[in-house]
Design brief:
The chain is α+β, with helices and mostly antiparallel strands. It has a domain of about 60 residues. About 15% of the residues lie in helices and about 20% in strands. The strands form 2 sheets. It has a two-stranded antiparallel ribbon. The protein is globular. The two termini are about 20 Å apart. About 10% of the residues are buried.
Length: about 90
Amino acid sequence: MRHRIGTGARSVEARFADAAKGDYYVDLRATAPWLHAPQAQRSFGAGVPRFTYRFHTAPLVPAQDYDGIAFVARSTCSHPLPGAEE
């Protein structure tokens, strides 16, 4: 079942979504000061809780934890590969 989850208001993903439209890559080796400060990232796996997902966050310092981040503005539901349902 498809669900729209949005960007959330408290997450680093929301800041990336506001920075530029579409998909892009951010090189974190020389970046804005806020990328060197503690942020919150959304944290959930394949199963996203429908109403409480916005409260599932984990700490992140983007420029300390990663060399770069690929931001994907929109994704689609996953589907099993053919033959994987054995």
